[in-house]
Amino acid sequence: MLSYQHAYHAGNIADVHKHLALYGVIDHLLRKDSGVTYIDTHAGRGAYSVTAPEMARGLEYEDGVAPLMRMTPHHPLLSEWLLRLGQQQDNPQKLMFYPGSPWWLADRLRAQDRLELFELHPGEFTHLEHQTFLARAQCRQTDGLAGVVARLPSSTPRTMVIIDPSFELKQEYSDVAETVSRIQQMARHAIVLIWYPLLPAARHQELLDHISALGVRKVWRSELVRRDPGAQRGMYGSGLLIVNPPWQVPEQLDDALAEVAGCWGEQAGHTSSWWCPE
Ligand code: SAM
Question: Which UniProt keywords apply (predicted)?
Answer without folding.
Answer: Methyltransferase, RNA-binding, rRNA processing, S-adenosyl-L-methionine, Transferase
